[in-house]
Amino acid sequence: MPTDSDIPTSRDEKIQQLRQSLRVGQREMADWRGGTMAVSAVPGAGKSHGMATAAAIAISKYSLHPRQQLLVVTFTRSAAASIKSKIRQHLRDLSLPPGSFVVQTLHGLALNIATRHPNLSGLNLDTSSLINPNQSHRLLRTCVEQWRVKYPQQYQVLLEGKSFDGEETEKLRRQSVLRTEVLPSLAHTVVREAKSSGLLPADLEAMTQQGIDHYNILAIATGLYAQYQNLMKAKDFIDYDDMILSALRVLENEAIRKSWQKQFFAVFEDEAQDSSPLQEKLLKILARNPEDTVSNLVRVGDPNQAINSTFTPADPVYFNWFCGECKTDGNLAEMNQAGRSNIKIINAANFMLQWVNQQWENKHKFHLKDLPFRLQDIQLVPENDPQADANPAAVGQGVEIHTPTDIYQTVELMGKRLIKLFQNNREANAAILVRENRQGHFVAEELAYLQKNHEIKVYEVGEVERHSHIPQEIYKLLLFLHRPHSSENLKSALEVLEKRQLIPTQDLNALATLPEQFLYPSPLDPLQKPQVEAAAGYCKKLLRARSELPSYQLISFLGLTLKYTGSELATVQKLAERVAKQTAGNSALTAILTTLAEIVSSERFEGVEEENDDRYTKKGQLTIITMHKAKGLDWDYVFIPFLHADTLPGEPWIPTAAKFLGDFTLSEVARSQIRTSIHYQYSHDSLPPTLPKPLEAWEEANQLKKAEEYRLLYVALTRAKRLLWLAAAQKGPFRWSVFDGNQDNFQVKQPCPAFSALKQKFASGGSSQS
């Protein structure tokens, strides 16, 4: 029987075995000896596995316990659950108690701190409601209306735009565009960018430079932000940034800050490239030793997989700067080895990274920190790597590149290739990665025969994700039925019908400007065009149902009218039951609308879907999924169709209805100006920045968008293990949002520049069809 003196030796041996099981970059993290450390990892390098092992070794090395824990922070709940399970398993193997660490998401951590000290945080979940407003949220619409009343002169300047002849119909059209599109978009972008960086309306106002542009965009942004904050306070709402800000307010108290710092020996952060400046600030405070200035902070990420800055204020430049600081101090580790993909796929990903950076340098002459990619190639793992089937053998050519005649032939080629692949290996899995859900829906419809005729399950992720929008779509249509002569309600309903491809695509602002004339034109009004007549007919069909059906049946009726199918209808039924329960005893349409508004605003309603963790990567399954959603996943065979230049990286686009304001969008100009100021605060530059003027800001915003699109393509390429199949059809729809299946309207498409470079480089190693 072993004695107590034998246990440490046995544990030391197990720790050494754990360390030996790691790759070179992972070992550097496991050898961490305190202080600040950055770990830059390539796709498939095993970040989570390396961090879990390093965490277990650190817990043992520093004898951590429940009163002084290791804090592990991740970006999502699923990632938190996964890494928590791995650490626990390591601790069991080392015979260590499980209470020596805690795993939390960033927002969960902030909420925990804030709710523990409600007097300091000002946060009370018993009375506050958490919201995550999108651009069409009624809160933002209310902000716009309040700002418009408070600042009529600034609103008038926007209304006049570049030129205005005073014509009444045009004035009404511009008002509709400003109130329902331009200003809500500006408010949404500014609140998200400024608040997540710790900027309050007063800070934003201090950034405003008079005369920088005709509209004084940042001044408008400041006013909208101030209205947003006032409304949030009045309604007792909080958003996700309020959680972080509330936690930071708590930590301003020295005694409480030291108490939290003593609780955590060190902080390990995963997916650090997705953190905002405010989130980074919170982690740095918690990682600091309360007795000195030393910080025990390990941040792991991949700036080349930063694909969320279009939707969030996360910017890879911050993690790149952190890596640069750690490199200067000799505390930068690079996890370059990856066993996920075969050598041909790795070569393709590395080539694209280098090619994009080279093109960027030649065209933009940016500094190194501004390149789309960090210069870090993926390397093969050694032959004795412990990962099973590391760097697997290629299937077919490994990388296959096609240029089909059109998008229909693209899908035909994918179908034939998939049938052959699954015939050869029923245990494999495959994915088709698309840029937008409309593409995925088209592919799913065209490949539906695979399940029926070849027993290949086809799982369209976008179909399930659309369910989360069902309450909002139903709510918009019911608002129209309640007040059909409201321009705003009519436009919202038309947007839903157009999105569902139930009415022809057209200028909705023109239709919504005069609702009565649109719905019930008099003999003296001009004859309606066919597409207008079709839209009006659909709206009148809905209004007839309003008069013929009881209110409690309208939700189910609208589900059928919108042509929901399968689990979408199950989601509608779930929604109808939820509303009926909450409006029991009062089934009036106003009561239904009030309940639906609460559901839409709180965003707590979830659609009906499968709840399997591996639902995206099941064996024998073809998953159709967007590139964004595919991050963190991998498949044996990955197909990436429709690689066209107008989609990826895309071109600057200004909505036609808003062109009266100029050759830019207010939201993107404001975003670029705010980021310029925030970058100055973090870059330690001596001179304050001169904010870019609108056209300069617009150009900069579009270059950053293109850089992110190339990183998105890089993420997509690196999902494949055995086969990567790429295609750019010669013809396709002008825009997917208006595609109705008619091949006669196809246009000649230019391939994505990176696709053309890959085709030229790997033509001999892949296959090409014209």
Compute the CA-based radius of gyration: 28 Å
What does the overall shape look like?
A: globular
Largest sheet: number of strands, sense, barrel closure = 6 strands, parallel
Q: Look at the structure and give the mean pLDDT.
A: 88
State the separation between the terminal residues, measured CA to CA.
Answer: 73 Å
Helix content: 40-55%
Which strand-content bin applies to the residues? 5-15%
What ranges have pLDDT less than 50 throughout 5 or more consecutive residues? 1-8, 764-770
Quick structural gist:
The chain is of the alpha/beta class and 770 residues long. Helices cover 53% and strands 9% of the residues. The chain has 33 helices and 16 strands.
Describe the structure.
The chain has about 775 residues and is of the alpha/beta class. About 55% of the residues lie in helices and about 10% in strands. It has 33 helices and 16 strands. The strands form four sheets. A six-stranded parallel β-sheet has the order 3-2-6-7-1-8, sandwiched between helices. The chain has a six-stranded parallel β-sheet with strand order 9-14-13-10-12-11, with helices on both faces. Strands 4-5 form a two-stranded parallel sheet. Helix 3 (about 45-60) packs across helix 4 and helix 26 (about 555-560) runs antiparallel to helix 27 (about 565-580). The protein starts with 5 loop residues before the first helix and ends in an 8-residue tail after the last helix. About 45% of the residues are buried.
